[in-house]
Amino acid sequence: MVRSWALTPASVTLRLLRPLAEVADLPPLPACGAISVRCWVPNLLIAEIFLRTEVRDIAMPFRKQIS
Prior knowledge:
Blueprint: H1 2-7, H2 10-23, H3 28-38, H4 41-52, H5 55-59
């Protein structure tokens, strides 16, 4: 569920990365293709860090612990 939620704002990340490609003077078509594939990576990395650290236990204190 956390991963699905993290991938939802990928369009926002895409809109943040596109101006950076223009500033870096990359060709528009290849840059757009690469950015559209890579726009979900930062969101997914943050979700994975969240799931693998103790932050999850602090953020979700009422979650059942399954051993």
